[in-house]
Amino acid sequence: MADTLASRLSRPGERVLVVDDLEFVDTETVAVLDAVRRRTKRPMIVTMSESSIYSMAQPAVLSPGPEARVHLSPLRYEQVNELLTEILGAPADADTTARILTKSAGNPRLVVRIAETASLSGLIVLRHRQWHMTGDTLWNEHLHGTVESLLEGLEPDELTGLHAMAIAGTTPLDVLQQVVHSDVLDRLEQRGLISVTEDLHNTVCASITPPVLADYFRGQRVFTSRRVLKSRITRALSGLPQEPRIDLNSADSLMRVLAALRLERSSDDAAAARHFHEQISVLERQRYELWDADRSVSNAVALLSVYWGSPIDASRIERVIAQTLTSEGESCDLLFLAFTKALWAIHKGKGLDSAAGALRSFGEERPKWSAEAEAAELFLVASYDRMPENLDETFARLHDRHPESGVISSIRGILELYRFNPSAALRAIDTSGGLRGIPGIEPFIRGMALFSSGRIEESIVFALDQRAEARRNLDQFGMVSNTYVAAQALIYRGYFDDAEYLMGSVFAMGRPGFLVASLHDAMLRLAGLRTATSAILPASTLATQARREAEDIGPLPGTARGVYELVAARPLIPAVFDGKAAKLIQRQLERGYVLEATYSALFFTCLLPGRKVLELLRQTLKEYPSISHDQLLAIATAVVGDDHQMLGVLLEHYEPDVDFYQVRMLLRGAFKRYAFVDDTIGAAAMDRAYSMFATRFPSEDEPVAFSSGSYSPLTVREIEIAALAGHRSNPEIAEHLGISIRTVESHISNALRKTGSPSRTALFDLVRDSSPFREKRLSE
Questions:
Q1: What is the DSSP letter of 171?
Q2: Residue 132 forms beta bridges with which residues?
Q3: Mapping DSSP to helix (H, G, I), strand (E, B) and coil, where does residue 25 land?
Q4: Positive or negative, the Cα torsion across 618, 623, 625, 626?
Q5: What is the C-alpha to C-alpha distance for residues 594 and 416, in angstroms, rounded to an integer?
Q6: How confident is the model at residue 646 (pLDDT cuts 50, 70, 90)?
Q7: Which letter, b or e, does each residue of 106-127 get, where b requires 16 or more Cβ atoms within 10 Å of its Cβ?
Q8: First-to-last C-alpha distance (Å) of the chain
Q9: How do residues 82-99 score in pLDDT, each as one tens digit?
Q10: CA distances from 318 to 314, 322, 340 (A)
Q11: How far is CA 382 from CA 141, 564, 576, in A?
């Protein structure tokens, strides 16, 4: 064997030995490989677990030992999503992906094994082209062998230690050492069976990894009585020290928060998500038990506030809403309860009228709080239908009725964001007397107001600091809402990798509560945008995990489907893209969602610049001058008007501003715009402009742009003929254009092939908005 392999490796050319999973290779084969390596002097690459948890046998060391070692990090959320799509033939929903990630700790083998056995056991099923969990567990009998292979060779005290940790969950290390001997913990950590993390209180915590081991031990009775062991652990944990809160009021610094974020990226998503949800589960269970013992309004509010941001237990929500004793209670708590009933009605699909009815009933029963009830109804109408008319007059009237109300002020702040008035949003929350009734909404309003007013760096720093605070306080509402703000701002600055990690850390926690579900969906679509634009062929992205029942238009950027679906549709002709984008933006403006319309127009203009969208953007910014985009608008005007000379002057005098990344994206989009219609002269001019700009302002961030492979562009002649093909025969087209019938047939055949259109009529529908024929007819 050694002679044969050595002869093959000795052939001319660059050759290398690659051995996957060295710990599974028998000693005889290792000896052969070692002999061949010595004889041929060819390099060898081997893969193996950092610590062999699958077998006690230590892999043989190949002389002269490793020359380099590369640590492979656990899979992250988006990678697990891709792997599940590959092995199951369809993507999984957000909750299933998050659960498999946390149970496997990002180990690829375990991801595959858990998914396959869950499918085999009926624990996940395929519905509407997505895999969904049928219950609340993925544990099944087919995983026993997998887990037992992980535990092979462990000593009895090590197994007992793991059993104790399974019961205790993620626990501070100094407390855990009171239950499991330090020597046992050291041995388990060496075997890779313990994950040690440091939380934001600087407390070192330990937990079992991969977490599927904990499911195994919780279902087994091995080596000791569970009752006795659990009692012992409970006594130890009762002495858990209370860590002092950390003051994070240090000076804002973009570099500080980005450095902290990138340091966090080296941690384990699965472990962090598991730790967070273990704590949330304890909190939810405690509050439910309190409510069950005393069904007061205050106890109901404490429990329901968890569900605003954290995973929903529908049966408990229904029970609390139906059985809470409302005869007594603080008015602000009763308002919160009524508001939650209204939101829950919408979440359950009962419609806006049903939700508004709950708030009107509360206002009628408590006239002193009717202004708050009316403001809450305004929020529902604005969020799920359209912006109300005469908003200033309405809020002035409500403020006169209850000038000290923080609820009215916070709702006004949100609606001012919707209509792209960030300065008014900040004034609303700065003058508020308190935010009773809508916990945690003030940081979201402030972060979005900073972002939409062009104070991008401030919004990043503020949102990331607020996210850290929410993480420390087990506040998933704050985690999701502030991550949304930070992700929007990071992407606007071009920090896509940081934004995608940040969103992935939220996705790993599974689908959140009902109030921030739309923000979670927005981030799923945002995370899918780069793939949707860059993939040569249509590809599955995280956006498929967003809820399908969302509308095309929403009050905040990305909370609706329209923008993503237009981009993912890969329109074949720039003028068609421009027309469809303009129609979408016009509908956003008609609903009063000016913030969404503005950022949609900015994104579309930079991705594939067009005259119609640019004009809408210019008009909107003129009417709502919240932030200056003068340099970007001037450059876009030169691009759309094919004024290459003016473009050169503008780029020469450009001074970096908040739109720096957008300008780079615009120049790349302009190049694509020319390339897609085979205008080689224009494309070459834009390529030179982009290269000159990149030389003057170097940046490592690659701008988002459509892949050339995403399009099969039609020539100008093919567009012209396709526009006539919907209502004229081939002989008529030939006569009209003065060309042969065969030439017409050839052009139509090429256009059908390039666009994938099934018929001449479909081809006509695709190109009519961009054809010279159409433009001429409109001008007439």
A1: E
A2: 125
A3: coil
A4: negative
A5: 10
A6: very high
A7: bbeebbbbbbebbbeeebbeee
A8: 82
A9: 999 999 999 999 999 999
A10: 6, 6, 11
A11: 49, 22, 31
